[in-house]
Amino acid sequence: MTDPLIVEQVTTPTGRDQDQIEYFATNKEGVQVTEKMRQFLGHVVNGTLPTMDVPEVAPEVRELAEELAVVHLPEWKNPAGRKLAEPAVIQVAQAPRIADYLIQRGWRRDPALEVVRWSSTPGGLPGPYDTGLHYGRGEDGEWPIPDIEAYWDVDDVKTEQLPDGTWKAEHPRGVAFQAATKSEALAGIVETIRTKIEEAKDALDR
Length: 206
Description:
Blueprint: H1 13-19, E1 23-25, E2 32-34, H2 35-46, H3 59-69, E3 70-73, E4 76-77, E5 83-85, E6 88-91, H4 95-104, E7 117-119, E8 133-135, H5 148-151, E9 158-161, E10 167-171, E11 175-179, H6 182-205
Antiparallel strand pairs: 1-2, 3-6, 4-5, 7-8, 9-10, 10-11
Helix pairs in contact: 3-4
């Protein structure tokens, strides 16, 4: 007759630490997250950056990491002028790590080589959701301040009739207006855009 097998539970320091972590239920069955993850997801939804301790890095690494964190891509065309893709926003999760690696590989930003810059939309959506505006140098080689109305071009407004018969006019920079008729929707969105432009101009004058 063999001796009975005795199994003794052993808890490591790592295991004890894991046992102390509190998890919270989500809307998805069987998926739980920590408080830290809940806070992070809240920042993602709101388009804000979390407050956290970030180790000191070289200025060139920080500058590149800020460029990579949220990349705003302009409309993409081939040499013949044919559009290949719409403007897009790409968020790079490991921007600091990638920036550090690229700097070690010898990559550096040279302002003298810049041919395009990006500017956020005055009064527009939060950073990660804002397509902003790309612009080039002026004839004098300097970088002009973009006209606010260039961001809110009414020609970019699109209209559609909704299932309930009403009409919606929408601008890609995050504003829309719904009305009973197409003409009313267009008039409403134009007034909304005019208000956005005036608010942005007032903010610049302060």
